[in-house]
Structure prediction request, 337 residues.
Amino acid sequence: MKKFLPLVALGSTLVIAGCGGGESESSGSEEGGGSPSHELQVGIVVSESDPMYEGLESFKENVEERTDGDLAIEIFPDSSLGDTAEIQEQAIAGANVGTLADAGIMADYSPEIGILQGPYLFENYEDIQKVTDSDLFAGWEEDLSSSQNLQILSFNWYQGARHMVTNNAINTPEDMNGQSIRTIGADVFLETIEAMGANPTGLDWAEVYPGIQQGVIDGAEAQHSATYGASLYEVADHISKTNHIQLITGLVVGAEWFSNLPEDYQTIVTEEAEAAGIEASNTVIEGEEEYEGMMEEEGMTIVEPDLEPFQEATEGVYEKFENYPEIREEIMTITEN
Prediction:
């Protein structure tokens, strides 16, 4: 299994929230001006300009309003709370933290869920929603909660299609031969990029800009909002729309932290996570052309390659993972209905 270790340690910045004891489920607000009984720190790797951050702001605002401020939420963009895998580990350990984690990273705890980041599996957000609303996904969700102490609040945060961000145009898989391409350090991503012809490289997202600038890597694969938010147009000349992975993420917290919330608060955070995920995803979908236009204005060239050679090159990725061919068939049945 190909993995790389996180480069940044969280250290002591994380605060373990105490359970809200007391006579009332919202005691902090009823007395007015008191400290919140529950706190959640949400860390993400993308910037404040990203639709995911905007969605989390809505989540924060609505949760705090519905709990009269008794459940306080703080958002940390730009990897300032650590990278996704680190925050997820902290949540499992019992910290009052959450993050937006993709299915590839979560496969470390429930291997089959990683298929959701398989190459050319989905055509659009609607297909993804069909699967995340299915009994198949519900089984993965229950397993993560009961055996791994990971609670999915919602898994409908669509970040967009992943494309190649490089200094040379990518028209065929052969154009990627020998190139070092940064990707998410999860097995299904690593196998996909390797099948496309490149050398997959694990770096924290915050290190991609200097990595390209200094020639440590030749490029990266990313969705438009992340590419623009990280100002990669300053160090890369081309976006080649390979569309190889539809990045779907979930807002995840520790199951222990979640279970210690009052039941009405549990309902509130899941409802608001679902609503905010839809809002953020729609912003991504509606903003695709705008992002392309802004990056073209910054001097980038948008390349639209024929996708068939890339689809053929990555077909064998599913054979690399146990049960993926069978699960893929099940997913295709779900999306076709």
